[in-house]
Amino acid sequence: MIKLYRIGLWIFIVAAAGLLIALLLQQTDLSKILSVIAAVSLALGLGSVPGLKGYQYTAWIIAAVVAGMVYPQAFMHWGPVNLRDKTLILVIIQLVMFGMGTHMSLRDFKGLASTGKGVAVGLLCHFSVMPLMGLLLTKVFHFEPEIAAGIILIGSCSSGLASNVMVYLARANLVLSVIVTAMATLAAPFLTPLLMKTFAGTLIEVKFVDMMIEIIKIVIVPIGAALLHDYLKGAGKARAKGIAVFSVIGALYALAVLFWIYPVVAAGGASHAVLQSLELSGFLAGAVVAGTLYHQLYKAYPKIDQLMPFISMFGIIYFTTVTTAAGRDNLMKVGFLLFIASVIHNAAGYFFGYWLSRFFGLDKNSSRTVAFEVGLQNGGMASGLAGSMGKLGTVGLAAAVFSPWMNISGSILANYWRKRPVEPSKEKEAGGL
After folding, report:
1. Axis crossing angle, helix 174-200 with helix 208-215, rounded to the nearest 10
2. At 173, is the secondary structure helix, strand, or coil?
3. I need a labelling partner for 204 at 20 to 30 A (CA). Which of 111, 172, 173, 185 fits?
């Protein structure tokens, strides 16, 4: 693999030099080809540089943006497949969230009692600072309504596993980070629609219940399936057998809803609320089935858990590419301003997350943790919601622009704090928790 990384780095050097020459000679078509080759080979080549290996994922995201900008039509349709189809987007975002969920555990919630104050501060800062900063930025930069709504949307989403990774790299309070992420995820179905209705209700139509159900399908269902898999790892034979039986019943029910009950009820003129309830019940039953089946696959191939982060990464890259392609014209107009907005939004999350935590009496390590939890948003969730609205090229643009910068800035801050560990004696003198 190292050899492949080194080859990628050499290809990047050659492609970058060729790109410079092509730009000077105004060879547009050749410049497009070389820009994509350079971006992809750089993402691959960073793996051969120990000091830059941590930025490899971010480089892949940037490569996705470059590909979407240069060849937008290539990422609209693949044959008869519409890459922006709502069902396809839902399936991929569920895979992304399931992949993230496989690295969560029911044991993560056991530390809630000992980190209660930190969790409360983290959730309060996360769901207040970021949506309010998003709203402020829309007033300052005067984006078009749907693009502005996307900024508020990503500010209203929960934090993702990226924050846990950055906290780990920074050697801060990882237990607190994991619990805040988990609790923010559980709170998202209610708080995200509420914040969107409050702050973005004049920009786009926000249907509270519809958005809440979409978040449950996008986030809670796949993560619930992953946590069921985690539970089965330690479950006895009797409990595992009971869940297996329940999953068979769930599978039969989900199939019945999909092919019989839902079509019949819809044809009978049932209300939207009834249809939503049926649909959601089918998804919840499907979560039990998915968690059980995945656990059986895990028993046969234990290393599959190690592959899930790569599937999640692929899903994020997919969303970034398709969103960039769909919103290319808008990005050409406001891309630079969106990037400036992302830098300000992200920096505000780190700044207020840290200093508000200190104000509320948290120790420095916990405050560093909250800074990451506030500053790093779940871009995948924002993209999934934008896709479910059918507004990937407008509402989804903020997620496509914000996500790469969040990974870059998070890595820089994590490495900065890692080199400046908190001294325990000074923590005690400061009265930290």
Report:
1. 150
2. coil
3. 185
> Could you give the CA distance from residue 388 to residue 89 in angstroms, rounded to a whole number?
8
How many CA within 13 A on the CB side of residue 208?
Answer: 7
Query: How high is the pLDDT of residue 79?
Result: 80
> pTM surpassing 0.85?
no
What is the spatial distance between Cα 27 and Cα 21, in angstroms, rounded to a whole number?
9
Question: What Rg value do the Cα atoms of the chain yield, rounded?
Answer: 22
User: Residue 292 in contact with residue 244, Cβ under 8 Å?
Assistant: yes
Q: Percent helix, strand, coil in the chain (nearest 5)? A: 85, 0, 15
Q: Which two tokens stand for residue 36?
A: 């994509």
Q: What's the CA gap between 247 and 249, in Å, rounded?
A: 5
Residue 147 CA to its chain's centroid (Å): 18
- Report the interhelical angle of 145-156 vs 328-359 (nearest 10°): 40
Amino acid at 59: A
Amino acid 218: pLDDT: 86
Give the confidence band of 432 by pLDDT, cuts at 50, 70, 90.
Answer: very low
Q: Please, which residues have CB within 8 angstroms of residue 261's CB and are 6 or more apart in sequence?
A: 278
Mapping DSSP to helix (H, G, I), strand (E, B) and coil, where does residue 143 land?
A: coil
Residue 428 pLDDT class (50, 70, 90 cuts): very low
The label of the residue with tokens 């990974």 reads: 407
Which structure tokens are listed for 78? 């693949």
